[in-house]
Design a protein that fits this description.
alpha+beta; elongated; DNA-binding; disordered C terminus; homodimer
DNA sequence: ATATACATCTCGAGA
DNA sequence: TCTCGAGGTGTATAT
């Protein structure tokens, strides 16, 4: 990783055109060929003001560098950095291996709910995860106590988009006479008020579920024995 | 801006939980209180492996630092950095003023199409930009040669979501008898194949528009005189 | 402060 | 290679 603190101006042309006037910024060039330009807050906070994702071709002219050109290996994007003054220029070997371990993403929620389908609705029994439709898989397909079908869409955050997505699935599922009666349930850790309203008008039920409670709860089968 | 190259491990708890095992990484602490941790490619390229957006409270323990704790000023997010070895630690004053000038974002596209509505469809005349509905404004409302209404949704990239959004607007617009016959047109620089298919089934027309051609074309009025 | 929509979104999985 | 969907999305704007 090469870090250059420099007074520079930056022009990007590609998906759109941008220009960043002369000023002091950090140029970060990673081993994978990605490049990013950071100011000290101001406009951008965590996002770089300019960047290019790999694969790239990087052309550094001069030592100390006075011009850096970054091009995408495929496509016509170009980042042109004109350097007035280099204040610092260091290289370090940083870690490239260890992966970030995540816990609590949508996948985890889906696994927990697949093991405890009754948390999505009274008496729900899981028929299958990732139930296929011709526009993609529904997260959970269950049956209610009366044997009616229920499609469950799982999200961390329940939005209007999630409701629309489930509505699209339901359209397809109901085309099959075998599942023509299928209901829809949106299960999420948090459900936005507007999503709730739209779900209501689309006849879709909403359930908020807590990761902690799911983790704490025993499996339904075990609860039977412990009761 | 403070840049620390360090062998460290990072634990984040908040919206979810993550853990990053010991390894050499760049810690970037900006003047605005934002913090980001970059590896040298690998998993993340342009995105930091961990980060926190301002406003934050940053607690740096030791000199050289052996532990850094970052907390959100509001909420319960926490980033805990345990440092084994500091390889470099420098501070610089980077630019915080100058704004990035952009050209070619959706706003620009909307302005150009508002001035040249016929690019969205033969003989379209603009009635108004940002036509209000009770769920948000439609980008352009036009009339066709036969005086029928057309709602135009403008995107840089035409996706399924864009089609659904326009479909929601059309639902509302058609509730008003005055505009019950309203058609829909999705105008974008690029339209995804799946979006095209969904648009077809929703009775929504698709138009791909080029920023360059829009810029190059004269206004319809001027073309009349030049012809 | 909250809600909404854009983004050079980025990034990974799957076909 | 392309397409689709998730993201600790981030970020700005309007309410």
């Amino acid at each position: 990783m090469r870090l250059i603190m420099a007074r520079c101006e930056v022009a990007y042309t590609g998906r759109l055109s941008t220009f960043l006037p002369m000023g002091v910024r950090l140029l970060m060039i990673k081993a994978d060929g990605s490049v990013q330009i950071h100011s000290d807050g101001g406009g951008s906070k965590v996002k770089p003001q300019n960047w290019m994702t790999p694969p790239t071709v990087i052309d550094i002219e001069g030592d100390p560098p006075h011009r850096i050109e970054v091009r995408k290996r495929k496509g016509s994007e170009r980042l042109e950095i004109t350097i007035d003054e280099v204040l610092a220029d260091v290289s370090h070997d940083a870690d490239v291996e260890s992966a970030l371990e995540k816990d609590g993403v949508e996948r985890d929620l889906q696994e927990l709910l697949a093991a405890r389908p009754a948390q999505c609705g009274e008496g729900f029994r899981l028929v299958r995860r990732e139930w296929p439709t011709d526009i993609g898989p529904v997260d959970l397909m269950c049956r209610e106590p009366g044997d009616g079908w229920v499609a469950v869409e799982i999200k961390r955050l329940g939005t209007i988009e999630a409701v629309e997505q489930l509505a699209r699935y339901l359209e397809r599922i109901r085309l099959d006479p075998a599942t023509a009666d299928c209901r829809g349930v949106l299960a999420a850790q948090v459900i936005k008020p507007q999503a709730r309203v739209l779900a209501q008008s689309r006849g879709i039920a909403c359930v908020e579920v807590s990761l902690e409670e799911l983790r704490g709860s025993r499996e339904p089968d075990l609860q039977l024995f412990s009761a």
